[in-house]
Amino acid sequence: MAAVSPSVTVDNSLVSIGTNWARYYEYAATTLHSPSTIDELSEIVATAPKIRALGSRHSFNDLADSAELVSLDRLPPDIRIDEESETVSFSAGVRYGDLAAELELQGWALRNMASLPHISVAGAVATSTHGSGDRNGTLARAVSGLEFVTATGELLAVTPVDEAFDGAVVSLGALGVVARITLDIEPSYEMRQQVYSGITWEHLLDNYDAITARAYSVSIFTDWSDDARTTVWLKGRLDERALPQDVYGAKPLADDVRLTEGSAQNTTRQGGEPGPWNERLPHFRMGFSPSNGDELQTEYFVPRQDAIAALRAVRALGDRITPHLHITELRTMAADSLWLSGAYGTDATAIHFTWKNEPSAVLPLLPVIEAALEPFGARPHWGKLFASVRRERYPRLDDFVALAHDFDPNGKFRNTFLDRNVF
Fold first, then answer.
1. Which among 233, 246, 285, 419 is most buried, taking Cβ atoms within 10 Å?
2. 56 in a domain, yes or no?
3. The domain that contains 374 carries what CATH number?
4. How many domains are there within the chain?
5. pLDDT one-digit tens code per residue, 176-197
6. Which contiguous run of DSSP H or E holds residue 318?
């Protein structure tokens, strides 16, 4: 990681690009472009020798870095709803919270959202970011169209009828700069959220499948130490089965609870109070910072059939993990066909670690955790911290490399991260 952020050029002014959201990774790029039109974006990409798109800075590694970066924040959102096809298209710089608010205003909804509404849609899609729910896929699964600015500055549309579609959605930025995205949507719905406390690890593991199937979206939080720090979050649609009064011994909490170091005010309403989908599916509220950002993050996807064994393997490391951990979140998702997705070809459980900002302690733990998860074919989240990527766990990785060469034969969008982990 760079120790000092260099001076960089932004619109002919000398500034610093700075760090990621958590102030952990400092970007090495020396130029940051901020176009306000697609034509400007195309010209910038066409003339840059090396360039990558910079989203909402929620990655914890060098995935987004390059000699030059381009931010899409100044592009008009241009949100367009097509009621006949039940899709919405918009500029790739749009963040989920802003898109969700506009959809809800017009009576429409997304099927799922991540815990943070603050993240850019393009960045979340490109890295296989996800929410939760046994029947819900990753956020990328909702994509029904992409428009790339290619290395030559041309616009290239990719849709599900194209042979390259399943490889182009979770692209890690290797194919070009995504300028526009189309997502599937559905009519708006209301939800309620309830947090339960008091479940034992024995009951959790013995009933894991039943618990994750009990609501539309389910999250389990723990610090691996004891039962007192384990909670179950159920998010249920009002048009589906009502939430229970007991989850295998866990009882509903009367007051809203906080996550990590943030205030309970930062989290979406709990206590079973009904509200619109976009104010219940995320854990955090769009108008508030989710935490102080002084953290590190790691996440691994394991096949759903191996979830219990994988959780037991991680819990066996609890004495080493817990002292350096804020919290772990467990979430589930349905299988998809997207080549670099964490859920490619398998229903999955995601094991997410929000660490204290202690890199000297946390980084050496990552290979230990990955060794414990080795029997289960764990795949790391592309935008988090991890020790290594096992290529054989992505059956279509070689196909993706070939696709990237087709899109970008001269490697304009390649960087150190891609060379280390993909190419």
1. 233
2. yes
3. 3.30.70.2520
4. 3
5. 999 999 999 999 999 999 999 9
6. helix 318-321
